[in-house]
């Protein structure tokens, strides 16, 4: 069976992916849900994208993981792209789940324009981190649950290091040219990428030959329906 | 529980929304389905967009409705936009269901080009009203039912006052800047907006921050599956 | 009940549509699954688009079929367009299933750019035929089944005559102006048309007034879920 490593989104930790991981394990796979540097309890919020990528490269080495199905959610797409570029031998397939797909030299903000669009409402916390206000998050990221679930999920978020969103990635090989399996999971009710620019095909087409999996749900399907997400992940991750 | 006011599409009356309203009431909400001026039995077909909007403003006042979840279907999007602009204090959230989202100065026809596209086939009735021929309506608006259901639904339609479709709306605040909740329900098989311009994201993006709800079905989901529509409406309308 | 004639995709024969045909027959319809010239066992691989179209025109005449609901899958869209142009009196409705919709003078390759995109990986077999390598086919055409099913389906394919993909179609009437029913079935996980150009609405909008039917599934829904495909076909084919 497969070895899945699930990389969370900005403002999250690996903990929010545990219900999904549990469903994938139930199908017989091994699943890891590490937390990226900058989002771990106690981490300095001055972490940059390179620190973030390094922390997952380190996790794979420390646990001696090879032949990994490496999934990234949202911002996690930046991380798995960087990891696959640095240690390709450890990765069997990349799975982008409503995730950013950067080419060399691009930052997340180059693709999302969050700072431009949400700039005035992003709460700057003075330690290098930013938070999305609850009303925006509830409407655009977790639009498929009731208010109580949304509020509870929001309370579990942690302030995100802004530098990781504006740092430009440095990779040798763009995703299109990476010689490994690539999949894109698109939650069809995810309106978290602003304006006319949906995740699929805007991001997915940057993968070259890739496998598409779509499923109903918001950007936070890990909270609204982790079992359905687990099924999409194993459909995306199998050979 | 919520107070829902459902505003019908062109060629319709509130009656066609009754099965949907009934399902929403069953979940404990209060639901109103008024008919817009120009579509009520006996109305002059010379009504314009301002008459149409005023009739719903009047309905809200007459029934002393506040904190309303105001839904508009198709042409109904013109109406709810105008109502929210005039009596914002009465509205809690706007829900556009495969509906037009106008900015100040736009007419429905500016966005749909129906007159240009369907002009030669639109039946002019000599009293200011127009009808879509059955074959176009069956193929593009109610593509998810059998022929008998489509024919029966068509027979219930009423000629629509053309002026309401070409009048330009006059509002103080564009939807993007309105300070209230906004949702967009997109029926994924609705091909009623011609050519390359789907309802979502073409119309939805004009809302600024909004909540997306998608569901399978045609433009006439109120006829093909009112229970599924009711569920989408309550998902879109809740806080 | 209806008379359905199902025209297969490139690399296929009518045999792969039999499970789907069987479900449609079970609902009381008559169903034919002829194989296009160039894909029949023993056919020369030098066949061109005109030979391919003629073979289906001949099939309809030989079986004295009239009032036909004529479905085309992928490349089959080229064939049914040509057939409807030559013998319109035999056709009641055209159903395009993730299919190419050509205007006069267009080739399949003009719309798909397969030769440009996949050119270097298309296996030339020296007899006029080409094959897609398994990894590309598995990822982009049959992304919704397990590896064993994908491999077995691939083994049933036959080398496709390249000339049929690059020949430009010659028709008197473009699909938009054809006076007969037109439907488009879109499998939402079909990523077989490269880059930013999805089948719907890119191809469907070329039909003018048409009926849209969407269903989850890959380009090869005839293999991954023939019952669901049969349901989509009868929804698309009914009056």
Keywords:
homotrimer, alpha/beta, 11 helices, 239 residues
| Distance linking N and C termini of chain A | 11 Å
Most residues in contact: chain pair:
A-C, 15 and 17 residues
The major beta sheet of chain A can be summarized as:
6 strands, parallel
Strand-residue fraction of chain A? 15-25%
Overall residue-averaged pLDDT value of chain A: 94
Task: Note the overall shape of chain A.
Answer: globular
Computed Rg of chain A = 16 Å
Percent helix range of chain A = 25-40%
Commentary on this structure:
3 copies of one chain form a homotrimer. Helices cover 35% and strands 17% of the residues of chain A. Chain A is of the alpha/beta class and 239 residues long. Chain A has a 6-stranded parallel sheet with strand order 2-1-3-4-8-9, with helices on both faces. A 3-stranded antiparallel sheet of chain A has the order 5-6-7. In chain A, helix 9 (199-202) links the parallel strand 8 (181-187) and strand 9. In chain A, helix 1 packs across helix 11 (226-237). The longest helix of chain A is centred in the N-terminal third of the chain and has 14 residues, at 49-62. The termini of chain A are close together. The model of chain A has no long low-confidence stretch (mean pLDDT 94). Chains in contact: A-B, A-C, B-C. Chains A and C meet through strand 9 of A and helix 6 of C.
């Amino acid at each position: 069976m497969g070895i899945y490593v699930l990389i969370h989104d900005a403002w999250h930790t690996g903990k929010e992916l545990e219900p999904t991981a549990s469903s994938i394990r139930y199908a017989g796979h091994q699943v890891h849900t590490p937390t990226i540097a900058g989002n771990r309890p106690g981490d300095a919020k001055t972490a940059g994208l390179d620190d973030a990528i390094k922390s997952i490269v380190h996790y794979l080495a420390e646990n001696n993981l090879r032949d990994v199905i490496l999934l990234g959610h949202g911002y996690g797409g930046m991380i798995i792209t960087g990891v696959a570029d640095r240690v390709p031998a450890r990765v069997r397939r990349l799975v982008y789940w409503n995730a950013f797909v950067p080419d060399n030299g691009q930052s997340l903000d180059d693709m999302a324009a969050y700072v431009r669009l949400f700039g005035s409402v992003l709460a700057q916390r003075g330690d290098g981190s930013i938070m999305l206000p609850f009303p925006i998050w509830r409407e655009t990221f977790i639009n498929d649950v009731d208010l109580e679930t949304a509020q509870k999920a929001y309370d579990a978020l942690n302030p995100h290091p802004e530098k990781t969103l504006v740092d430009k990635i440095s990779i040798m090989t763009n995703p299109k040219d990476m010689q490994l399996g690539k999949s894109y999971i698109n939650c069809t009710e995810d309106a978290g990428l602003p304006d006319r620019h949906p995740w699929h095909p805007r991001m997915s087409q940057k993968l070259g030959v890739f496998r598409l999996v779509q499923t109903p749900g918001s950007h936070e399907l890990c909270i609204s329906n982790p079992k359905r997400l687990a099924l999409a992940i194993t459909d995306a991750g199998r050979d």
